[in-house]
Amino acid sequence: MIRFEDVWLTYRHAAGASAPVAEALRGVSFEIPEGGFRWLTGPSGAGKTSLMKLIYLAEHPTHGRIDLFGTHAARISRHNAALLRRRIGVVYQDFRLLPQLNAYDNVALPMRLARRSEAQIHANVSEILRWVGLEAKLAARPDELSGGEQQRIAIARAVVARPKLLVADEPTGNLDDDQAERLMLLITALNKLGTTVVVATHNLHLVARYPAPRLGLEAGRLVYDG
Amino acid sequence: MMAEGPRRAGDFLGLRAALADRLLPVLVAAMSFLAALALAGTLASAELAAQWQGDAAAALTIQVPQPQATTASGQDTRLDAVLAVLRANPAVADTHQLSQAEMTRLLSPWLGADVTTLGLPLPAVITARWVRPADPAALAQTLRQLSPGTLVQSGAIWAGRVAALTASLQACAAAVLIIVALVAAAVVAVATRAGLAQRRETITIVHGLGALDSDIAGRFAARATLLTFSGAAIGTLLALPVLAWLALLATPFAGPGARHAMFILPAALWLALPALPAAAAAIGWSTTQLTVRRWLKGLP
Ligand SMILES: Nc1ncnc2c1ncn2[C@@H]1O[C@H](COP(=O)(O)OP(=O)(O)O)[C@@H](O)[C@H]1O
Ligand SMILES: [Mg+2]
After folding, report:
1. Which CATH superfamily is domain A2-225 in?
2. Which of A205, A202, A208 is nearest to A47 (CA)?
3. Which end of chain B is more exposed for a tag (fewer CB within 10 A), N or C?
4. Are A171 and A92 spatial neighbours (Cβ–Cβ below 8 Å)?
């Protein structure tokens, strides 16, 4: 499902920055089979977000090769990359909800992009909003929601279209233990239904409670895979 | 319970307000107003030029005395030499030598039924038409060198200048139309870029969710099409009273045929004016598509 082969990612800083470049990933190689689950751990700045951006096609590797869904990512056309993104659910570290849309419409976005019927959208969106406990807030805009509620909306949007691959960047960062527990139940349920899952976290308690294979990053290098 | 209810599916990307809703139509209206006037100018001057060229004012009459005598160089008859010069001149068209019968018809009211029997030394008469600006005096001089005594009667001493004037008016109007179209495209491009900058966040997010470039460009283009079309429609409508007023001023010059002021506006204008909003919409759509797609190339 996902294969990294000696992947490097170098950010070019804007002129005037203290360092000219930031090497976010240095020679990372791993493989995640279809239907697999991986924790992605490491201290802040280790490169977790960078690695996930490569997976959801928001960055291109500076060097090395990435295969997604059995395809060499560098060879995917712009059009097909967009279609591929629709099969990847992403929970961004900073949520990235559309401020001008209410909770319902934010969650409905992926399904509307896929041109599903409004009836089907209504069924799925209502169900997933109930799952994250926000069915009463569907008309609220993001700025009317707390950080934890926004995160739950972001999670609902990531899973509403039943993605083949779920990538979650610190999804429990703003949640209390109870909500984090519910979220992990949702994610493991999706994983059991066949969705490949990658969850980045620096919360080692959570990792301990849900034992699963782990990718450990430190300063851009993969230091643990098992 | 729901404050607003789910958004209509048509604007599910939330990009409806991404273009300057007021400024763009106002600017496009102003430019359409100019375009309508320029269009009226082009078509009216085309009409005017056609009228002048069709009129007696463009007529040219040449009398060649002793038509069968040879020219100074002694090769051709004077008539043939004059005809050859006229036919070779690009400013002169429809060169025609009056036949015996035509001469008779022309002269009989004055000289009686059978002109030829009078044995008068009649000149050959040639009629022609000016089709381009030219100098009748220069033509007369050329002809007199070949055939002394040749008379050139040109009702069109001014016709040539009018033709030159209408041609330059038309060139100006065409230039105005082209400039207005280019400025319109530039205004749409600037408005689109501003809209893109303002909605950068939203666009980056929906791009990340798998929106196609065509999805995003289509939203912006649909909006731009609507705004430019309505702006141009308003501008064109506002130009109508001005055109009517100009037509009213021009009525006395349009001859006895024109009873109602609006009738002297060229018929083609009534077809061209409704095309203005369509042209504006086409400019709006294509400029926006190009601008947005090029901007999206900056996203991974
Ligand atoms: N857009 C960017 N431009 C420049 N440097 C970046 C950018 N994003 C991340 N970095 C740098 O890359 C390194 C890894 O960052 P990141 O992947 O966000 O780590 P993590 O998610 O593990 O905290 C850090 O040193 C960070 O400063
Ligand atoms: Mg991060």
Report:
1. P-loop containing nucleotide triphosphate hydrolases (3.40.50.300)
2. A202
3. N
4. no
Distances (CA, A) of B141 to A20, B67, B130: 83, 17, 17
**For residue A3, how far is the Cα from the chain centroid?**
16
Compute the radius of gyration of chain B from its Cα atoms.
32
* Chain A residues with CB within 8 Å of chain B CB: 56-60, 78-79, 82-86, 90, 96-102, 104-105, 108-110, 112-114, 118, 122, 138-140, 157
Crossing angle for the helix pair B213-250 and B23-54, to the nearest 10 degrees: 50
Please enumerate in sequence order all residues whose Cβ is within 8 A of that of B278, keeping only pairs 6 or more positions apart, or say none. Answer: B229
- The mean of the pLDDT values for chain A is 92
A73-107 exposure pattern, b = at least 16 Cβ within 10 A, e = fewer: beebeeeebbebbbbbbbbbbebbbbebbbbbbbb
Q: Which residues in chain B touch residue A157, judged by CB atoms under 8 angstroms apart?
A: 209
Per-residue pLDDT tens over the stretch B203-258:
999 999 999 999 999 999 999 999 999 999 999 999 999 888 887 776 666 555 54
pLDDT in tens, A85-132: 999 999 998 999 999 899 999 999 999 999 999 999 999 999 999 988
State whether B197 and B278 are in the same domain: yes
Q: Which ligand is nearest to the Cα of residue A54, counting in written order? A: 1
| Residue labelled with tokens 């992403």 | A90
Same domain, B221 and B286: yes
pLDDT tens across A166-219, in order?
Answer: 999 999 888 888 888 888 988 999 999 999 999 999 888 889 989 999 999 999
ipTM attached to this prediction: 0.91
